[in-house]
Amino acid sequence: MTDERADIMLEILKTIQSDVSAIKREQTSQGIRLLSLEDHVRGLVGTIYGIQSDVADLKMRVDRIEKRLGLMDTEH
Fold first, then answer.
1. How many structural domains is the chain composed of?
2. DSSP conformational letter for 59
3. pLDDT of residue 73
């Protein structure tokens, strides 16, 4: 192999190595972003469960109030 061919191959390999390094950095960045999204979704799910619990409590209170006032439908 001539020196010229060896130099060309070396440049190609350096370019490939640089591209692989860039891909690794991007993959790491995307992994961090995915973890952040997972944390946000986990927080939203917790908030939704809290809201559902509050609504259920309010429904029970309204049902008791309606029962005391004699406003309950016979369907309940």
1. 1
2. H
3. 74
Q: Answer whether residue 71 is part of any domain.
A: no
3-state secondary structure 2-35: CHHHHHHHHHHHHHHHHHHHHHHHHHHHHHHHHH
Show the CA angle centred on residue 8, arms to residues 6 and 12, nearest 5°.
Answer: 115
Give residue-wise pLDDT tens across range 26-70: 999 999 999 999 999 999 999 999 999 999 999 999 999 999 999
Domain presence at residue 24: yes
pTM of the predicted model as reported, rounded to 2 decimal places: 0.61
Tokens 């070396």 sit on residue = 10
CA distances (Å), origin 63, targets 5, 57, 74: 86, 10, 12
